[in-house]
Amino acid sequence: MKRTASAIWSGDLKSGHGALATHSGVLKDTPYSFATRFEGAQGTNPEELIAAAHAGCFTMALSATLGKAGFTPKRLATQATVSLELVGGNFSITSVHLENEAWVPGISAEKFAQIAADAKANCPVSRLLRAEISLHAKLEPGEGH
Asked: Model pTM greater than 0.85?
């Protein structure tokens, strides 16, 4: 299975601009620029897309790992924060922090923490990234546990 995306860029780094697209069409001529990446301007950037990919991948992996252990989540919500920092004169993605809230009937906090750690370590995007990846997984109180 292969998935594709493309980028086009015109101009120099600071005043130039580009567009991103995915084969699926979810992104189509989606603009990005120096300002959207480094200055907080409205629009997307590669780090935001990595964060979306990691949040989605981890959440699916968590659902699968919970299912293998006999638990069905009512809701899983994950936010990924990608840190881009200047290191030794080069911009580097230095860390990814996953923040998860889960509503899972019948599971103990200990078992949930074990399953969440396994999902973090084994989701394909986690395995791809070499940056430090941290996780805070919080089981919400509710029925059944």
From this structure: yes
